[in-house]
Design a protein that fits this description.
The chain is α/β, with parallel strands linked by helices and about 575 residues long. The protein is built from 20 helices and twelve strands. A six-stranded mixed beta sheet has the order 6-9-10-3-11-12, sandwiched between helices. A four-stranded antiparallel beta sheet has the order 2-1-4-5, covered by helices on one side. The chain is elongated, with a radius of gyration of 35 Å.
């Protein structure tokens, strides 16, 4: 289970001490009925009042030791299980962070969230309850049987005849419930996905009057989850009533058989009273064991899901370094082909070169492959064929951290964290205040930052909910520029800016970032017309490449877009 051994190993001594305390406390509990039997059958008939007090005091000490030991052991089990779960959750989060985009596409974000939260919670509950009940219940069960056998073997046989019935029920429940809990967690992934989509798109849903549709959509996945949970609950619910019924029947038989044996003089009444106490302990022990098996079912199902992520192999491994070519381009794509699904190419035979400081504009309709080019350059995916080079070096030979340090990136729908304006631009990097101010100036963000009472220290809400769309984009562009990147990627990052602000931004990029190679995805021809090279894409294929003037002559699709947006090239214009 999730290779639990390596997570348990650093805490084995603490767990061992917890179980030792639990063992001692449970042993004290087992002696209480035995002492009571001595008092009833030996000391009371003999009228030995001092001995009655002595044995009664011993019972109180055993009860106090049992109570104190159980409380201490339960607290210790909570500490160790919390530490182990924290380590598992830490490794799981780290593995999720290092998964490639292709692996994350396969896993899905809702499933990752579910595994990181509910699945690790189930593992935590398994570890905690196993230390609490997993030691106490078997000892009470076995110890109770031994104590009853020592007192009166015929009465003990009544219990032993009933235990196999409960064992069969527990085995059936465990065998049946594990697949159901696995399915339950998978359905829960779907619920998380629907809720996540609703929360993210709440404004669009309300604007398009799709509230009732989304209610029905959520109702569907919620009903599916409820059905699976109900089925699993019905099966696991069999254990408690079955165990209670069986053992209570045994308790009744003990009273009946014990009455006959007392009447015949085969045993004393104190033995029967002690037997009733031991049977109560055994009953609770069996119920505890059934709860452990139910929790084991949930924990095992969750552990397998977590193990699947932890066992994911490294997808984007670094290749051995190769010699660079003479006088290489800063960025070069060589006959690159790529498909997300393996069915139909999203990028087909793409080739281009960019010298240091040049700007590449990428234009095309939705789904044409614009963002895919950027994802390949960032090595979120590896191409199916072809090469992508930076300074003549295949990006697959560049260490991951070293490759990412070259980029400054701003996406259209990037995320903004709760904090301050300065904190969002810095984004946990060791950058001086001067770099933040300069980046904000170049990104045209200082205009609205100065209007705020606290300036760069102004509070920003989660997702930037107290900022307009244009303010968010300028803040994101400032974040990309603050690290003085070698390569700047702007993926439709200025779509919410007005034409004047967009023009000032592009002028600052040309003047202040001459050595920065820029890849610019945009829907506006005006944002791309000054680029050193423009690619026009359609279904992953380059249908036009060159500067603005060249494309106006050679590419009909580009010319139509320019005419539609700016009226450029029209007769009489």
């Amino acid at each position: 289970m999730v290779q639990l051994e390596r997570y348990l190993r650093p805490h084995w001594w603490y767990i061992f001490l917890t179980m030792a305390i639990k063992l001692l406390a449970t042993g004290m509990e087992l002696f209480i009925p035995d002492l009571m039997e001595v008092i009833l059958d030996e000391k009371v008939p003999a009228g030995e009042l001092s001995q009655i007090y002595l044995y009664g005091g011993a019972m109180l000490l055993c009860a106090a030791a049992c109570l104190g030991g159980n409380i201490l052991a339960n607290r210790m089990s909570a500490v160790s299980s919390g530490r182990i779960t924290r380590a598992i959750r830490h490794d799981l989060f780290w593995r999720l962070e290092t998964l490639s985009a292709r692996q994350m596409d396969r896993l899905t974000v809702p499933s990752a969230e579910s595994r990181l939260t509910s699945d690790t919670y189930n593992i935590n509950q398994l570890l905690a309850r196993f230390q609490r009940i997993g030691v106490r219940a078997p000892i009470l069960l076995v110890g109770g049987v031994i104590m009853t056998m020592r007192m009166d073997a015929p009465l003990a046989l009544v219990l032993l005849c009933l235990l196999p019935i409960i064992a069969v029920v527990v085995y059936f429940v465990t065998k049946t419930s594990v697949p159901l809990y696995t399915r339950q967690q998978s359905v829960l992934d779907g619920v998380v996905r629907v809720v996540q989509e609703n929360i993210t798109g709440i404004r669009v849903i309300k604007a398009l009057s799709k509230t009732e549709y989304e209610k029905e959509r959520f109702h569907g996945v919620n009903e599916e989850l409820a059905a699976v949970d109900q089925k699993a609950g019905i099966i696991t619910a069999i254990t408690n009533p079955t165990a209670s019924l069986t053992l209570n029947l045994g308790l009744t038989l003990v009273v009946v058989v014990g009455a006959f044996r007392v009447h015949s003089g085969a045993c004393l009444s104190g033995v029967v009273v002690a037997f009733l106490q031991y049977f109560t302990m055994i009953l609770n022990a069996m119920l505890g064991i059934t709860r452990i098996f139910v929790m084991w079912s949930k924990g095992e199902a969750s552990a397998k899901r977590v193990a699947q992520v932890l066992a994911e192999p490294e997808d984007l491994t670094a290749f051995p370094p190769a010699e660079t070519e003479g006088d290489p381009a800063h960025i070069e794509f060589r006959d690159v082909c790529f498909s997300y699904t393996g069915v139909g190419e999203n990028i087909s035979h793409l080739s281009f070169r960019l010298e240091r400081g040049q700007t590449l504009g990428i234009l095309g309709p939705t789904g044409s492959g614009k963002s895919t080019i950027l994802a390949l350059l960032l090595r979120q995916y590896d191409p199916d064929s072809g090469e992508i080079l930076i300074d003549g070096r295949d990006i697959r030979t560049i260490p991951y951290e070293q490759l990412r340090e070259k980029f400054g990136v701003a996406f259209q729908n990037d995320f903004i964290t709760e904090g301050t304006v300065a904190g969002n631009i810095r984004f946990f990097r060791d950058l001086p205040e001067e770099a933040l101010t300069r980046a904000a100036e170049d990104a045209q963000a200082m205009e609205f930052i100065r209007e705020k009472e606290s300036g760069m220290d102004s509070e920003v809400m989660v997702r930037g909910n107290n900022l307009s769309g244009g303010q968010k984009q300028r803040l994101l562009i400032a974040r990309a520029l603050a690290g003085d990147p070698e390569i700047l990627i702007l993926d439709d990052a200025s779509s919410a800016l007005d034409y004047a602000t967009d023009a000032r931004l592009r002028r600052c990029l040309r003047e202040h970032y001459r050595d920065t190679t820029t890849l610019l995805v945009a829907q506006r021809v005006s944002a791309l017309r000054h680029a050193d090279q423009i690619l026009v894409l359609s279904d992953g294929v380059v249908i036009g490449a060159g500067r603005h003037e060249e494309l106006m002559r050679s590419c009909q699709e580009y010319r139509l877009i320019a005419q539609t947006q700016m009226g450029e090239g029209k007769e009489g214009a």
